[in-house]
Design goal:
Shape: globular
CATH architecture: Up-down Bundle
Radius of gyration: 22 Å
Structural class: mainly alpha
CATH topology: Amino acid/polyamine transporter I
Strand content: under 5%
Order of helices and strands: HHHHHHHHHHHHH
Number of strands: 0
Number of domains: 1
Helix content: over 70%
Number of helices: 13
Length: 425
C-alpha cells in the first residue's frame, strides 16, 4: 500500500485530476485500461456503501442503548439507506462541510479506539482479562507464520481494510496546495492506518486471547461489541461509538472517489455528459446522487438474498481494489519511464517502488482467484455457477463494466480517440 501511495503522490504532482487512476492509466496506457480502472474505482465504492452504512447504524444504535432496534432488519436497512442519502447530501453541499464532518468523525474514532487499545493492552498484559490475556510478541507480526489460504485471505482482507486512503487525491482540485497536499495525505494515511490497525489488533488479541477469538469466529463483525463491556465496563459505549463513527466516516469518504471518478470520466466523454454536472456548491451533484441511489439498490437487493451474500460481495470487491491499485503502480512506471534513468531517486521512487507494489498486488490477485474459486472460502457456502460467490461477484462486476464500456463506445467513441502521453519533464 505504501508503494502504491507513493505512485499516487508522484502522479498527482504531475497530473492533478480527481479521476486519479482513470486519468493516469488513460494517459499512460490508453483509454481501454483507463476506463476499466475508473469503472473499478466507481463500482467498489458503490457496492460497499450499504455494508459500511449498516455497520455505522448498528453500532450507533448499540452506543445509544437501542439494542432492540438492531434485531429489526427493516429498521437497520431503512436507517442505513437514510445514512447513505445523508452522507451524499453532505458531499453535495460542499467540500468544506464534508471536511468538517470528516474531521469530527476522525477525532472521535481515533480517541475512542486509543482508549480501548490502551485499557485492553494493559489489562491483558497485567493478567486482568477474564479470557486469559496473552503477552504480546513480535512473532505476531510474522507474515509467514501461517501461509496457504489463510495468508492469502488475510492479505486480501488487508487490501480491503487499507482501501480508501487515496480519497484526498480525488479532491485535488478542491484542496489548498493541490500539487503536494493530497499526495502527502495519501502517504501519511497509510502510515496512520498501519499504526491504528496493528495497535488495536494487538490489544484485542492480548486481552481476548486466541481461544476466545476462535470460539467466536462467527461473530467477527461484532468483536468490539462483545469485548467492549468486558474491557471498559460501563464505558463500553466508547468503543461502540468508535466503530460507529469509523463506519460513518468511511461511508462519506467512499462516496467521494466514486463520484469524482464519475465526474472525471464524464467530462472526457467516457461516460454520459450529465455525470459531469456541477452543483452551485461546486460539487458533482449528479454523479454523487447516482452513487447513492445505485448503492442503496445493491445493498437492499443483495440483502434480500442473504446477509452472507453482502459479506461475499465485500470479499469479491477486494479483487477490484487490488486491480486498480496495481494498474496505478504500473501506470506510474510507464508514465515516468523517460525519467527513470536520470537518477537513483527517480529510478526507485518512480519505477522500482510502484512496479514492486503492482507486482505484489498482481501476485495476490492470482492467488486470490485460485482460493476464492473454492466455495469453502465464502460466507454463503454455496456455489454460484460452480464457483465461490466472491469470485463470481468480482468477475461479474468487471465483465459488466466491459459490456458497458463497449456499449458506450458505440454511442460515443470520442474518448477512445485519446492516445497515451507520457511526462517528458
Amino acid at each position: 500500500m505504501l508503494l502504491i501511495a507513493g505512485a499516487f503522490a508522484a502522479l498527482d504532482r504531475a497530473d492533478p485530476d480527481c479521476g486519479t487512476t482513470f486519468s493516469w492509466v488513460t494517459r499512460a496506457m490508453g483509454p481501454w485500461a483507463g476506463w476499466i480502472g475508473g469503472w473499478a474505482i466507481t463500482m467498489t465504492g458503490v457496492l460497499v456503501l450499504g455494508s459500511l452504512a449498516e455497520v455505522g447504524v448498528t453500532f450507533g444504535l448499540l452506543a445509544l442503548g437501542l439494542d432492540g432496534w438492531t434485531g429489526s432488519p427493516l429498521a437497520v436497512t431503512g436507517l442505513s439507506a437514510a445514512l447513505i442519502l445523508l452522507m451524499a447530501w453532505v458531499c453535495v453541499r460542499g467540500t468544506e462541510l464534508s471536511a468538517r464532518v470528516q474531521n469530527a468523525l476522525i477525532v472521535a474514532q481515533t480517541v475512542a479506539l486509543g482508549v480501548f487499545a490502551v485499557v485492553a493492552l494493559v489489562r491483558g498484559i497485567g493478567g486482568e482479562s477474564p479470557f486469559g490475556g496473552l503477552e504480546p510478541s513480535w512473532n505476531w507480526l510474522d507474515p509467514f507464520g501461517a501461509g496457504g489460504g489463510a495468508l492469502t485471505g488475510g492479505l486480501l482482507l488487508g487490501v480491503f481494510a487499507y482501501w480508501g486512503w487515496e480519497s484526498a487525491v480525488n479532491l485535488t482540485e478542491e484542496t489548498a496546495g493541490p500539487r503536494t497536499a493530497p499526495g502527502r495525505a495519501a502517504v501519511l494515511s497509510t502510515v496512520v492506518l498501519l499504526l491504528t490497525y496493528l495497535g488495536v489488533a494487538t490489544a484485542v488479541v492480548s486481552f481476548a486471547g486466541t481461544q476466545w477469538l476462535a470460539g467466536n469466529a462467527g461473530e467477527e463483525e461484532a468483536v468490539f461489541a462483545l469485548l467492549s463491556t468486558e474491557a471498559l465496563g460501563g464505558w463500553d459505549w466508547v468503543v461502540l461509538l468508535a466503530v460507529a463513527t469509523s463506519a460513518i466516516a468511511s461511508t462519506q469518504t467512499t462516496i467521494i472517489p466514486a463520484s469524482r471518478t464519475g465526474l472525471s470520466m464524464a467530462r472526457r466523454a467516457a461516460l454520459p455528459r450529465r455525470f459531469a454536472s456541477i452543483s452551485r456548491h461546486r460539487t458533482p451533484d449528479v454523479s454523487t446522487w447516482w452513487v447513492a441511489v445505485v448503492a442503496i439498490a445493491w445493498y437492499v437487493g443483495v440483502g434480500l438474498l442473504s446477509e452472507n451474500a453482502l459479506y461475499d460481495s465485500i470479499t469479491g470487491l477486494s479483487l477490484l481494489i487490488a486491480l486498480y491499485y496495481a494498474l496505478t503502480g504500473l501506470a506510474c512506471a510507464v508514465y515516468f519511464r523517460r525519467r527513470l534513468l536520470r537518477g537513483v531517486r527517480e529510478f526507485l521512487l518512480l519505477g522500482v517502488g510502484p512496479l514492486v507494489g503492482a507486482g505484489l498486488l498482481g501476485w495476490l490477485l492470482v492467488l486470490s482467484v485460485r482460493d476464492l474459486a473454492d466455495v469453502a472460502n465464502s460466507y454463503t457456502g454455496q456455489a454460484w455457477l460452480g464457483l465461490g460467490p466472491p469470485l463470481v461477484i468480482g468477475v461479474g462486476v468487471l465483465l459488466t463494466g466491459v459490456v458497458l464500456m463497449l456499449w458506450w463506445r458505440q454511442r460515443d467513441a470520442s474518448f477512445w480517440a485519446e492516445r497515451p502521453g507520457t511526462d517528458s519533464v
